[in-house]
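Figure 2 data, in text form.
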Amino acid sequence: SPPGLLLLTSFLLHVEEGHAGPTQLVCDNRLIQKYIGEAKDMEKRVGQCQALPTLSCPTVLPLVDFNLQQWKSKSNETKRQEILCDLALLVGAVAGAQGQVTQECGARQLSQLYRHANYFLLLLQTFSCEAEPWEPDCSPRSMEQTHITGIFLTYRQLVQGKLRFFFHDLAKDLCK
């Protein structure tokens, strides 16, 4: 299908841009630290943009906070599904914000954030043992946001939190 082909092409382009493959990302802890650093940098840079507009149509962001004890009790597949839901909502929020921001600095940062979040979304879809394609069948806890900086904060929290702990858990099985 054309949308699937577009996703595959996008994924392959990102792999060629130097993004890591699934096993390398999970087994080399320096890579997730690099992505956390990039998330912090993007958040800092968007905060330096002059006169960022308030979004006229609020964007819906996932609430990505979590309880570590509850998180540890979940299966890796449940964690993956939860992160996929958060990422799908986040990618949609970024796309919606992109349509409202014409200011160059903010638009450039949103474009970069879209690429990064979409990369993780595509990557996590490849982690499944199931043959059928992932369909977003979820409604994560969410909130409305009218400030662009909130989108970047949510992304950083997701990468620093759930994603980092998920990769840590996967490493126990994959990196022997």
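Caption note: DSSP finds seven helices and two strands in the chain.
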